[in-house]
Structure formats: structure tokens, C-alpha cells
Amino acid sequence: MATIPSTQNLCVFVPVFNEMNTVEQCLKAVLGNDLAKQVIVVDDFSTDGTRDILGELKDPRLLTLFHDKNMSKGSALRSVLPHVDAEHFIIQDADPGYDPREYFKLLTPIVEGRADVVYGSRFVGGGDRRVLRFWHSMGNKILTFVSNCFTNP
Description:
Blueprint: E1 10-16, H1 23-31, E2 36-43, H2 50-56, E3 62-66, H3 73-80, E4 88-91, H4 103-111, H5 134-151
Parallel strand pairs: 1-2, 1-4, 2-3
């Protein structure tokens, strides 16, 4: 089994928008994970006090970026990419839906060469799963075709 050296390979990106009730607890959990070399938060113009909380958090691994207007999670991702200085990258929502203690589980298939990308799910428990099996893929294509017949996109 491959190992991931502590604080060597992982950047955790935390997009934030109006998360004052959860952001501090989330970031403490993320920073408490030894795998996190770098933690980058992008505040997408929060108006609920989240920015004040972020301004008070201090850790040498933490970089906080602030948008001047609300632009979207995708825009936050584009803002963070030039600052990434790690081999692996995890997107961690600022709510308690994802557990930073499971980063090792997410990274293991990549480090072992079994996957190029891994998606976590707060709904699907258990071990590894392939995303698109043949019948799943065919079902998606059929449903998309039927939907397109009715909506004429």
C-alpha cells in the first residue's frame, strides 16, 4: 500500500460563502489533518460575518483570498489554482458534510495508481466505486435523449 508523507502533497481548497456558523470548525478540522500542506480559502463575498472570522484565523499553511463580489464556486476555484503548491488537491466544502479525517481514503487510489481522480460523496458509504458502469452510462444517455426530446435544448 502506498503512503502519503505528512504535509508534503496536499492542498485543500475551501470555497466559502456565508458560512459563519461552520467555517471556523471546518477549518480547524482541515488544519488538524497532518496531510494538509496548504489550505486555501476563497471567500466569495460573504455578507454574514464570515469574512471577520476568516481574518482572525492564523496558521502558516492557511491562505485566504477574498472576492470583491459574489461570483460562484467555479470562479473561486479559478482564483485558487495559481496559488496551489502541492501534488494533490481536495475541494472541502465549509460545512460539516465532508470529514477531513477521510482525506487519506480519498488519496489512496490516486497514490496507488488506481485512479487519476477521486470524488467523495456524503451519500454513498463504503469503499471504492466506479463512476460509470456500462448500464449506468447507457441509462444516462437514454434519459438525456428523452429529456432533450421534450425540452428541445
